Amino acid sequence: MANGDSRRNWFNQGGQAYALYRPDYPEALAHFLAEASPSRILAVDVGCGTGQLTTQLAAYFDRVIGLDPSDDQVASAAAHPNVTYRTAPAEALPLDDHSVSLITAAQAAHWFDLPAFYAEARRVGVPGAVVALISYGVPVLDAEIEACYQRFYSEQIGPYWPPERGLVDSGYATIDFPFRPIEKPLLYIERDWTFAEALGYVSTWSAVRKAREAGKEDLLNQFADDFAAAWGSAERRREFRWPINMRIGTL
Length: 251
Hints:
The chain has a single domain, classed as Vaccinia Virus protein VP39 (Rossmann fold). Helices cover 37% and strands 22% of the residues. The chain has helices spanning 4-7, 14-21, 27-36, 52-57, 71-75, 114-124, 143-156, 165-169, 195-202, 206-213, 217-231; strands at residues 42-46, 63-68, 83-87, 100-106, 125-136, 180-181, 188-193, 238-250. Strands 1, 2, 3, 4, 5, 6, 7 and 8 form an eight-stranded mixed β-sheet that branches. α6 (114-124) links the parallel β4 (100-106) and β5. The longest helix is centred in the last third of the chain and has 15 residues, at 217-231. The chain starts with a helix and ends with a strand. 38% of the residues are buried.
């Protein structure tokens, strides 16, 4: 069973949990995006959350701007000397015309008004600028915990996922993407997590927040108990492996 410490409001931790538990992207992703860009003067990460990808891009670009509509996310974002964060929506980018070489949206584009965002990308992008919509869906897990995790994700918490979640699970394969596609590498996010770290990640899901708002704490706590039973020793580390999906092209 999940003990009291593991269950202590694990699904109500806000932007701090997002910063702690959302998995970072592999360094190879930022390297690839920089290599694909026409210059390295300025990149913008739209819907940046707490800056997981934003700060990695800063190793390759002179300046990076991270934009998110949530004050809570921006307040929790990781600091970096080359990064400036602003609160702004994807549909109204506070950037000069034709000033940006790379426009990324990591695990965020399913929330956008895409036609409005694409119009803004064309406005702020330099000729040949790269637009990259990046996502990761359900991880590949150890067989011992996969059934419990998948049942919670798809069935138990399933009704609380917004319709847009299907776009993430499909890797944005069905959305309109009106840019010239470029070839992308096969990349993965890989993490070895303890039980508490895995629960921390689950706590960042929008479906968990909605379930809690609907008064479904019992459902969440039951999953914590079931997952703990499947996991075994709370200190045991288990591998989480997410394939990275991308729609990427040039203006």
